[in-house]
Amino acid sequence: MDQGTCKEWDTVKLRSYNGGLVGPIIEVRPGDTLHVHLKNQLPPEPRPPTPDPNVPHGFNVTNLHTHGLHVSPAGNSDNVLLAFGPQQEFEYEIKVPTDHPAGTYWYHAHKHGSVAIQVSSGMVGALIVRGDIDELPAIKAAQERIFVFEQIPYALIDDPYVPGTKANMIETYQVFIPDRWELSGRRTLINGEFIPTFKMRPGEVQRWRFIHGGTMEALRLKLVRESDARSVMMQHQIAHDGITSGRLDSVMETEMFPGYRVDIMVKADQRPDTYLLIDEASPPERALNGRAETRKVLARVVVEGQSVQMSLPDEQALAALVPLTPILNEELTGTQEVKFDVDLSVNPPRFLINGKPYDPNAPPRRLVLGKVEEWIVSSSRVQGHPFHIHVNPFQVMMSNGKHIWKDTLFVGANQSVRLRTRYERYVGKFVMHCHILDHEDLGMMELQEIVPPDSGGGGHHHQH
Question: Where in the numbering of this chain does the Plastocyanin-like domain appear (predicted)?
Answer without folding.
Answer: 62-131, 336-445
